[in-house]
Every structure is written in structure tokens, then in C-alpha cells.
Amino acid sequence: MMTPLTTHRAGLWLLGLALLLSGCASTPPPASVDPNTPASVPVEQTTANPLAIDDPLSPLNRRIYRFNALTDRYVLLPAVHIYDTVAPGPVRDGIGNFFSNLGEINTFANSVLQLKAKSAGVTASRFVINSTVGLAGFFDPATHFGLQQRDEDFGQTLGHYGAGTGPYLVLPFFGPSNVRDAGGIAADQGLFYLIDPLQINGNLPASAAYNVFFALNKREQTNFRYYQTGSPFEYLLVRMVYLNYRALQVAQ
Amino acid sequence: MLAACATGPGPESAAGSDMAPGASATTDKPASTGNTPVAPYPIKDPLTATVLGTPAELQADLPDDAPITVRKLAPLVDRDTPDTLRYARPLNYMFTPQEGPAPLAFVIAGTGSSALSAKCVLLSRALYAAGYSVACLPSPTAVTFMLGAAEHPVPGRMPSDVTDLYRLMHAVRDDVSDTLDITDYVLTGWSLGATEAAFVARHDARAAASEAPFNFSRVLLLNPAVSVWDSVGRMDALLDQALPGGINQVPEFLAKGLGGLKNVYAKDKSLRFNEDFLYKAYESGAADQDDIGALIGLAFRLSLANMAYAADVLTHADVIVPEDVNLGPYDDLGVYFQRSFSMSFADYIDQLLVPYWNRDGRSVPKSELIREADLHSIADFLAADTHMRVFTSADDPILDDSEVAFLAQTFGERARIRPHGGHMGNLSYQKTIAALQEFFSP
Predict the structure, then answer these.
(1) E strands present in B11-101
(2) Strands (E), B182-278
(3) Residue B427 is part of a domain; what is its CATH number?
(4) What's the order of all strands across the beta sheet hosting B133-137?
(5) Residue A110 Cα to chain centre, angstroms
(6) What would the pLDDT profile of B98-112 be if each residue is shown by its tens digit?
(7) Which end of chain B, C or N, has fewer beta carbons within 10 A?
(8) A133 at B interface, C-beta within 8 A
(9) Does B159 lie in the same domain as B209?
(10) Sign of the CA dihedral A194, A195, A199, A200?
(11) Which helix (H) or strand (E) holds B314?
(12) B310 → closest Cβ in A149, A225, A232
């Protein structure tokens, strides 16, 4: 049987993760995040064992990890392959920009919540420019104007105000997370539902189409393959990289 | 040997310094791009080159229309899969077919790399563009190979690994012969895979007709190890030097790294975490020389940890996992990871490789294992085989000066030895790919 190996856009953090995990050194080294370390301790001083991570749900997490890997292999990747075949590159880029533009709503809200005025301003400007000049977000002229995209979510907002991560979690479909970030995802989704920028609440076919394309786009842009690291320790490595990556994002 | 390093799209450049004096055995042919002169490979420090690779604007511009696929093979050896290694099935290789009659190129991956590594993609694209169908094979040191293709799943004994590779290549030929019209065979490999390619070529040249030899018309060795165990010893030393506290210092090293990166973040709020990140971190001084060395050493250690763990489990060696422990697919591997990761290459030889080859009626002394994995042992063949070339860097950190000299002397005109590039750092560089494609031009 042949499996497609699609090409993906560069520039995604998961690419970095995939590189590290494929035994490669061209990724920043993650540091340790001991969940018991008070948030006031600078990250530089946390020298706990990077593997000593709070993961009491490990047996369940590992099962969900495998479930995700199988779902990826038998559902998501074949679907993405069809998507890649049917939709030409520029169309997929447009769809990627479209979802990225909608994502600015959450980035804006969380920039405001963290009192990051510049990030909020840049994000709002990007949203206005890309929604209008960028034809409903299908193009991204704002980046060409020098407005680089920011990255904030409610998990980061909680972290910003000192909330600990809680135990490590692997969420079905969403992948690596922790209690704090899982709550963050729920809050961000809730906000999006409340604002309903596409006016699709209650419209079942439209919601379904939105979710299908959201998932296809997300997977297409994520350069990570389960078990591609070839390591028997992949679960540990993903856990370590994820938690440290999130710590870095929160610190930003 | 570095698994999948330094092929990622690289940094915005530090370009433009003048051409360094040549340790080159042959003069550089101009890149096929023609009129515009290509800036020389810019990274003069070998370890940095190894980690960072080639800046984006100096990378070969390869068409991405190659029909790259991944194909599964049935296991070539009869073996029960331990639950803890279930993830490593099936045995895969990367396949890029031409339409119509074409030669087939085999590519052997470097240490720890499966057939899905980024370098497989790069070389598949380059060879496809040169008119070849391409089959990229996992390294004998990859867990998937050990599980599905290795008769003796403790990688490191060259003749045994070469026999396994040769069998795998025949299986691949059988697998694609229905759909491909193969006109000719060529062979290449990088790092440890290059050393193995040399031994495979020799094996093929001596094969009887009944073995259905491939009669490779061209063989290219990309940054081979000369004495495999000396090379990995250098990687052990690199880690010892960069992290004097040994493996116990790793947490501190990681924390320091994150601290440095945090400062980079603080300077540039809009910086995204992507493939330019490390380069910016490096430019800003967040990573010093020892950090770069430690990163390379750690990358090797991770490959070694994977391999040692799998070898231990598959042969019940009782070194990492106790014999009476039967690990399930969902068991916590933390303690075994630490044990595997603490192993140096020297430990691997003494605790896993040598004991395996001296039990169950086998008896191969350590000195023999070391001698077998050395290109010096087939120097006459290498010197006489005019179809074989070698590309490497004079500053490749897996080689010492005498080994570089050995390659230059043995291959003579057939060696392309650039002054800079580290270990595979300049693989995706325009001139390297152009020279590769020129060598393989049908």
C-alpha cells in the first residue's frame, strides 16, 4: 500500500518539534518544567530533571496517544491527501490564511487579557487589513506591511497570571496538552462560539463544513508524523518538548 | 551519522565571506544554475555547520514535484514483535518512481535514520530531478530496520549489517519490478550509510551470478565515516568535552538553553518558533561553542539510546531492561530511557555488541568487530573502483586529519573534499547538489 507523503508549509513550530524528534539538533533545547516549581522562579533556574514531569495519567495518556496516532494514519492523513490532490496550492494557502485570520480574534482577546497593548494593536490591525484588503482573510497582506502575526491563547493567559500547568494530558484529536491548556482550548472555543464571526451557529451543514476544513487545514499545516522519530521514547520526548515549548510561549 | 540534521530550510544568511583556501582534491565545478556565481558555503565552524546546515538562499532549488511515496515491505526476518517496539512496524522505505524506463538509485540513510528522514526527501528530489527512480532505505541502526530486516538485531557488525542491507535491496527490487522498467542501478548513502554503501558495493562486485547482483554503475559516498568506531568515539568525546558533568548535566544544559532562548524572545516579540529560531538564537550569542557541541553529542546519544534499547529488548541482553520484565505498549519507559540515554558508544560496544557476538556459539573478538567497520580494510577495492566517488568536508567532525588524507589519497581525483561544511552541513548547498547531480547525470 502506498501512503502519500505530502509537503507542508514551513514556518510551523511543529516542524521544529519534528526536527528535534527525528534525532536532529537543529531545534532549540527544551528546558525542564517541574510542575512544582513556583512560577516566580526564573526558568533559567529550574534545573529539575527534564523527565521528572507530573504525568499521573500516563497509562490513559499513552492509550490516547496511540488512538491519535491511529486516527491520524487511517483518517486524517488520507483525508489530507485527498485535500492536497483536489485543492491546488494557492487555494490551500488561501484557506490557511482564512483560518489564521479567524484565529486573530482569540489572539486579540488574550492579548487584551494580558494587557499586551502592542500585541493587541498589531493583531487588531492585521484582522482589519486582512479581512478587507485581504478579501475576507484569504490573503495576508498585513504580513507584507510588516505586521507579524502574534500568538496568544487562553492557556498562555492563564500561565501569564501564574497558573500552573497541572498534570500532563493527551487530548483525543488535539494531542499533547495539560490541564491548564485544555481549559484554555475550551475557553477559546467558547469565545469563538459566542462571537460567531461566520454566523454559522445553528446552521448544521455550515458548521460541519467549517469544522472539516478547519481540521484539514490544521493537519496539513502541522509537520509532525506519529512514530516518525523512530524512537521507542517518542511519548516522553513529545511530552518534554510540548511542556517546554508552552513554557517558552508563556514567557514571551 | 547525525540522523536528520541540517537539511531543514536554513537561516537567513551570514553569507559572503571569501572562499577559504582549498583542501579540495578536485576543483569545484560551477553550479548548474549557470551565470550567477554562487556564494561560497558560509559557515566556517564545523560544529556550527553541522547543526545549522545551509542558509536558505544558498540551498539547491529542487522541484517539489517528485512523486514521493512510502512503501511497506513484509518483514524479512521471522521475529515476534515485542509490545514495546510495536510502533516501529512496518518496514518502510521511501520510493520515488519515474514514469517510463529509468535507472534506480538506492540511498542508505545515516545513523538512526528511518526512510522518512528529511535527507531522504532531499536526496530523493535531487536524484529524481536527475532522472532516477529512487528508493531510500532505513539505516541498519534504525529500530524499524532492526525489527523487520536484521538477522542479528544488534547493529554495528559491518558484514552482518551489509548482508541485511543487501537482502533489503533485493526485496525492494522485487517489490517495484512489476511497476518499474529499471535500466541500471546506482547507490549512495550518507554518514554511516555511506560507509555501508562502500561495503555493499564491494559485496555486490564479488557476488555470484546466482545472487542476482545489481552491478552498480555509480556509487557515491556522502560524508562517510572511515573508522566507524573511531568516529562514534569522537562523538562521545564531544559530549564529554561540552558537558563535563556528563549526562547528569543535561537538565542544567537544557535549562540554560531555554534561558538563552527566552532572551532571544524578549528581544524580538514577533519571532515565531520555527526553523529560523535556532539560527537567530545563535546569531544573538545565546548558543556558544560548547552548546553547539553538546547539541550534536546529544543528537547522537538519542539515536544511540533508541538503538541500544531496541537491541537490548530484541536480544534479551538484560543490560537496560531486566530479563524478567516484559514491557507492554503503554508502560512508562522513563527509567529505561535514562538508562539507555546514559550509554556512550563505548558502553554500547562493551555491554551490547561484543557480548552479543560472543554468545550462543558466536565468537568474534572486539578487535575484529572494530577492524571490520573500517574503510581501511577495503582500501584496495576503493582505490580500484573507478565508479565510486566520495564527497566530504575537510573539517567533518566525525573524521580526523589522517582519515581525510586517507580518503583523498585512496580516491584521488574521485574525491571531492571541501574545506568547510562540517558533517553534512553543506549537503543541501547548491554546489554540493549540483556536483551530485553531475556525477549521476545519465
Answers:
(1) 69-73, 91-96
(2) 182-190, 218-222
(3) 3.40.50.1820
(4) A2-4, B69-73, B91-96, B133-137, B102-108, B182-190, B218-222, B388-393, B415-418
(5) 15
(6) 999 999 999 999 988
(7) C
(8) no
(9) yes
(10) negative
(11) helix B289-315
(12) A232
Cα–Cα distance for residue pair B281/B288, rounded to 1 Å: 10
Contact B1, B300 (CB under 8 A): yes
Separation CA B86–CA B70 (nearest Å):
18
* Helical (H) or strand (E) element with A93: helix A89-113
Note whether A241 and A30 are within 8 A (CB): yes
Rounded CA-CA distance B442/B437 in Å is: 9
Could you tell me how many CB contacts below 8 A there are between chain A and chain B? 199
Binary contact (A66, B278; C-beta < 8 A): no
CA distances from B192 to A123, B111, B141 (A): 48, 6, 9
Using CB atoms within 10 Å of the CB of residue B75, give its burial: 0 to 12 exposed, 13 to 18 middle, 19+ buried: middle
If asked whether residues B81 and B222 sit together in one domain, one would say yes
The residues facing B113 across adjacent strands are: none
Q: What is the pLDDT of residues A213-245, one digit of tens each?
A: 999 998 888 877 888 788 899 898 888 778 877
Report the DSSP pairing between strands B102-108 and B133-137.
parallel
- Does A28 contact B281 at a Cβ distance shorter than 8 Å? yes
What ipTM, to 2 d.p.? 0.79
C-alpha cell at B354: 561484543
Q: Do B198 and B89 belong to one domain? A: yes
Amino acid at B252: E
The answer to whether A241 touches A21, Cβ cutoff 8 Å, is: yes
Which residues in chain A have Cβ-Cβ distances shorter than 8 Å to B306? 23, 230-233
Same domain, residue pair B344 and B213:
no
- Answer for the pair B145, B171: CB distance below 8 angstroms, yes or no: no
Reported as half-sphere exposure (CB side, CA atoms, 13 A), residue A19 has a value of 30
In angstroms, rounded to a whole number, what is the distance separating the alpha carbons of residues A211 and A195?
16
Q: Is residue B389 part of a domain?
A: yes
Instruction: Report residue B26: phi and psi, to 5°.
Output: -125, 155
Instruction: Give yes or no for a contact between A248 and B266, defined as CB atoms under 8 angstroms apart.
Output: no
Q: Which domain holds residue B420?
A: 69-230+370-439
Beta strand pairing status for B69-73 and B91-96? antiparallel
Asked if A19 reaches chain B (Cβ–Cβ under 8 Å), the answer is yes
Q: Which residue of B has its CA nearest to A227?
A: B87
pTM of the entire predicted model: 0.82
User: Other CB atoms closer than 10 Å to residue B326's CB: what's the count?
Assistant: 12
Per-residue pLDDT of chain B (442 residues), as tens digits, is: 333 333 333 333 333 333 333 334 444 444 444 456 888 998 888 988 888 888 888 999 998 889 999 999 999 999 999 999 998 989 999 999 999 999 999 999 998 888 888 899 999 999 999 999 999 999 999 999 999 999 999 999 999 999 999 999 999 999 999 999 999 999 999 999 999 999 999 999 999 999 899 999 999 999 999 999 999 999 888 888 877 776 666 666 666 665 565 555 555 544 444 445 555 556 656 566 677 788 788 888 888 999 999 999 999 999 999 988 889 889 888 888 888 888 899 999 999 999 999 999 999 999 999 999 999 999 999 999 889 999 999 999 999 999 999 999 999 999 999 999 999 999 999 999 999 999 999 7
Listed by start position, the domains of chain A span: 54-77+153-199+225-252, 87-150
- What type of residue sits at position A49? N
The pLDDT tens digits of the residues spanning A159-192 come to: 999 888 888 999 998 899 999 999 999 999 999 9
Structural element, H or E, at residue A225: none
Domains held by chain B: number:
2
CA closest to A47 among chain B residues: B252
Residue B224 lies in a domain: yes
**Could you give the angle at which helices B228-242 and B289-315 cross, rounded to 10 degrees?**
130
